[in-house]
Write a structure and sequence with these properties.
Elements: E1 5-10, H1 14-25, E2 30-34, H2 40-45, H3 47-67, H4 80-105, E3 108-111, E4 114-118, E5 121-124, E6 127-136, E7 140-142, H5 150-153, H6 157-160, E8 169-173, H7 177-188, E9 192-196, H8 208-220, E10 224-226, E11 231-237, E12 240-245, E13 250-253, E14 255-258, E15 262-264, H9 271-274, E16 297-299, H10 310-325, E17 339-341, E18 347-351, H11 354-360, E19 364-371, H12 374-379, E20 385-392, E21 398-404, H13 408-420, H14 425-430
Parallel strand pairs: 1-2, 1-6, 2-3, 6-16, 8-9, 8-14, 9-10
Antiparallel strand pairs: 4-5, 5-6, 7-15, 11-12, 12-13, 17-18, 18-21, 19-20, 20-21
Length: 450
């Protein structure tokens, strides 16, 4: 059968663009369908703009710390509109880069929303296109809980990045990495910030000690925590939102933000009707080669709801292209994937948390360090950094590394290489630290936790 394309990629985010570029580089005729802006969640409404706002928010704490170092400084006010304009200019630049990457690779970008109508067929802009293979890379989208008033009055992370007016007071519902990152952003710019969450500690799924440490740090920075609470209703009154909590508390705030998770963006895509096996949350079920239950349809990235991180989507897209069009037998590994939470202070980790390690191995040894960073000894900030190594006792292999503190993401990237290579605690001990740094604590922990 003759097709219009060798490959149609639905979604021009990080994973889809990487798959399209590499596939076209191998000689495949590729079309990429995008209904929004090329760049996807990460570049347009996720990690990039969010981190730009995080950088801006961090200056208030930096200015506060600077006074004790002899600087005569003051932060009188912040121009939110100027920051949003600067952020948007950077996103336009990055979008242009993504368009150029596709064009230079020889892939065709088609703007519009696609629907899969058959194993090799899609419709976009009322036009039917065919391809030997279809790759789904549409990512995920914020979800709203079915709480009275939530849909009418709450914003999500999408809208939070483009607010015209900065809120004087905000309630953030959730305790995952998105909730914590935006809590740091709004708090850093001066908003009275509430964090409401169902569990006893933030960041479900992370190491229990990290969860405890970040709760203490958030409160130390002025974020108001409401653990073991839910939002029962939201009512609006002009510019004010009245947020009722499950314990009867009512908070009146300028904004309420829902950060209670993201769902695969598959609604209306036509996958189930085409025979593609789907999970309970709408995720596309794939094998290790990114292939779905329909042999001509593949999927990568957050739409598969496995490890929802941009670098993982990129790795999956690259592996798909190498295997299908490059003749290289590659599989994207999901083992020992490092990650970071750009909260304030930030968090980073790789490998197993302590609970997971105890469940997997007969014996583990834990090493930890909790200390006041050198900068804080003069700035007067009471906040402490925390580091933790989880070691399988029998093999001495480091199976988990966790950190909360300044530059943790940058530090963990290097640690991740060692863990990926199977480094042992003896390897860490034999490494001479860089002094004075926080990172040296990872190679100077000698006494196991009792």
């Amino acid at each position: 059968m003759t097709y219009d394309y060798d490959l149609i990629v639905i979604g021009a985010g990080s994973g889809g663009v990487r798959a399209a570029r590499i596939s076209a580089g191998y000689g495949a005729k590729v079309a990429v369908i995008e209904g929004d802006r090329p760049g996807g969640t990460c570049v347009i409404r996720g990690c990039v703009p969010k981190k730009l706002l995080m950088y801006g928010a961090a200056f208030s704490a930096d200015a506060e710390d600077a006074r004790r170092f002899g600087w005569i400084v003051g932060v009188k006010e912040h121009n939110w509109s100027n920051l949003i304009a600067a952020k948007n200019s950077e996103l336009v630049r990055l979008e242009g880069i993504y368009r150029s990457l596709l064009k230079n690779a020889g892939a065709e970008l088609i703007e519009g929303f696609a629907t899969v109508t058959g194993t090799n067929h899609i419709i976009v802009n009322d036009q039917e296109l065919t391809a030997e293979r279809i790759l789904i890379a549409v990512g995920a989208a914020p979800q709203l809980l079915d709480t009275p008033g939530m849909a009418e009055h709450a914003i999500t992370s999408n809208e939070a990045l483009d607010l015209e007016t900065f809120p004087e007071e905000i309630v953030i519902y959730g305790s995952g990495y998105i909730a914590l990152e935006f809590a740091g952003i709004f708090n850093g710019f001066g908003a009275k910030t509430h964090l409401v969450y169902r569990s006893d500690l933030p960041l479900r799924g992370f190491d229990s000690d990290i969860r405890s440490e970040i709760a203490t740090a958030l409160e130390g920075r002025g974020v108001i925590l409401h653990p073991e609470k839910t939002i029962s209703a939201i009512e609006g009154n002009g510019d004010k939102k009245h947020i009722s909590l499950s314990d009867g508390t009512v908070i009146t705030a300028s904004q309420v933000m829902a950060a209670t998770g993201r769902s695969p963006n598959t609604a209306g895509l036509g996958l189930a009707e085409t025979g593609v096996a789907m999970g309970g949350r709408g995720e596309v079920i794939v094998d290790e080669n990114a292939c779905t239950s329909v042999t001509s349809i593949y999927a990568v990235g957050d739409v598969t709801d496995r490890i929802n991180l941009t670098p993982v989507a990129i790795a999956e897209g690259h592996a798909f292209a190498d295997k299908i069009y490059g003749g290289i037998n590659r599989i994207a590994s999901h083992d020992n994937v490092a990650s970071a939470v750009f909260s304030q202070p930030p968090i980073a980790c790789i490998g197993l948390n302590e609970h997971e390690a105890r469940a997997k191995y007969a014996g583990i040894t834990v090493f930890e360090s909790r200390f006041r960073a050198m900068k804080n000894t003069i700035s007067g900030r009471a906040e402490k950094s925390y580091m933790k190594l989880v070691v399988e006792t029998a093999s001495d292999r480091v199976v988990g590394v966790h950190m909360m503190g300044s530059d943790s993401g940058e530090i963990m990237q290097g640690i991740a290489i060692a863990v990926k290579m199977g480094a042992t605690k003896a390897d860490f001990d034999a490494t001479i630290g860089i002094h004075p740094t926080a990172a040296e604590e990872f190679v100077t922990m000698r006494s196991p936790r009792l």
